[in-house]
Amino acid sequence: MAPLTTSRTLRIAAGSVLVAVVVLSLKFVAYQMTGSLALYSDALESIINVVAALAALIALRIAARPADDNHPYGHSKAEYFSAVAEGVLIVLAAFTILREALPAIQNPGARAAPLDGLLVNGLASVINGVWATFLLREGRSIGSPALLADGRHVMSDVVTSVGVLAGVLLARFTGWHVLDPLLAALVAVNILWSGWHLVRESVGGLMDGADPDTTARLRRIMSQHADGALEMHDLRTRQAGQVTFVEFHLVVPGDMTVSRSHVICDVLEEAIRAEMPGAQVTIHVEPPEKAKHHGVVVV
């Protein structure tokens, strides 16, 4: 991973901590002003945002460390631990909200919910929405699981916050007080769902799960930049944070010199890195009798 990319990723992660603290403060002010259980659940999720942002920052600092004797493939998988931890925290927050909401659903009571408190919560949601959009865009551009996980979590927070605000307003003007704890419970269910998806994706990264889109892109690159080779097979890829590891076998004519086959390997590596910056490519060159007649056939 290039130093510039590392530095930018760390700055964004530090920005996430600052934004999460600001949003948390605004949401707790809104809860204190309204006494709304639904807004309390919204504020509680923001505590998770702060902890998750700190975890992502720590994980990204670890992931930026260069390879060493104990970690010859680098430390980039540390980002997945951050995403898993965030998913677990989301689930814990959801159960905490449900613990408060379920008794209130059985015995709903009137809550003040003044409009100025709702406006404060709305301001927090706007800040979150802008930052979530930025995180998702940068996470995809850089290829950072930690930033993407943070962006998805913050965006889910925005969606639930909008629903909570709409419901609290409806409860205020209709007198249906049960809507307040009911919305809190719905927020908890939504948080559980997003936490489950986040943990599943992160565990897939830790288990070196294959990405069909990445495989298709590599097959296309191979077919376009392997002039002189006969076949590529046994393609394997894995993602470790922002680094993509690529391995495959390259079949060349039996009379081809080592120098010529090396040139083909260099061209393929450059083509792969052009589309997947920072990719680590390992190519095993084989004679024609090793061809398996599947994979990417050049001739």
From TrEMBL:
<feature type="transmembrane region" description="Helical">
    <location>
        <begin position="118"/>
        <end position="137"/>
    </location>
</feature>
<keyword id="KW-1003">Cell membrane</keyword>
<feature type="domain" description="Cation efflux protein cytoplasmic">
    <location>
        <begin position="211"/>
        <end position="287"/>
    </location>
</feature>
<dbReference type="GO" id="GO:0006882">
    <property type="term" value="P:intracellular zinc ion homeostasis"/>
</dbReference>
<dbReference type="GO" id="GO:0015093">
    <property type="term" value="F:ferrous iron transmembrane transporter activity"/>
</dbReference>
<dbReference type="InterPro" id="IPR027469">
    <property type="entry name" value="Cation_efflux_TMD_sf"/>
</dbReference>
<keyword id="KW-0813">Transport</keyword>
<keyword id="KW-0812">Transmembrane</keyword>
<comment type="similarity">
    <text>Belongs to the cation diffusion facilitator (CDF) transporter (TC 2.A.4) family.</text>
</comment>
<dbReference type="Pfam" id="PF01545">
    <property type="entry name" value="Cation_efflux"/>
</dbReference>
<dbReference type="InterPro" id="IPR036837">
    <property type="entry name" value="Cation_efflux_CTD_sf"/>
</dbReference>
<dbReference type="InterPro" id="IPR050291">
    <property type="entry name" value="CDF_Transporter"/>
</dbReference>
<dbReference type="InterPro" id="IPR002524">
    <property type="entry name" value="Cation_efflux"/>
</dbReference>
<dbReference type="Pfam" id="PF16916">
    <property type="entry name" value="ZT_dimer"/>
</dbReference>
<feature type="transmembrane region" description="Helical">
    <location>
        <begin position="80"/>
        <end position="98"/>
    </location>
</feature>
<feature type="transmembrane region" description="Helical">
    <location>
        <begin position="12"/>
        <end position="31"/>
    </location>
</feature>
<feature type="transmembrane region" description="Helical">
    <location>
        <begin position="37"/>
        <end position="60"/>
    </location>
</feature>
<dbReference type="InterPro" id="IPR058533">
    <property type="entry name" value="Cation_efflux_TM"/>
</dbReference>
<dbReference type="GO" id="GO:0015341">
    <property type="term" value="F:zinc efflux antiporter activity"/>
</dbReference>
<feature type="domain" description="Cation efflux protein transmembrane">
    <location>
        <begin position="16"/>
        <end position="207"/>
    </location>
</feature>
<keyword id="KW-1133">Transmembrane helix</keyword>
<keyword id="KW-0472">Membrane</keyword>
<dbReference type="InterPro" id="IPR027470">
    <property type="entry name" value="Cation_efflux_CTD"/>
</dbReference>
<dbReference type="GO" id="GO:0005886">
    <property type="term" value="C:plasma membrane"/>
</dbReference>
<dbReference type="GO" id="GO:0015086">
    <property type="term" value="F:cadmium ion transmembrane transporter activity"/>
</dbReference>
<protein>
    <submittedName>
        <fullName>Cation-efflux pump</fullName>
    </submittedName>
</protein>
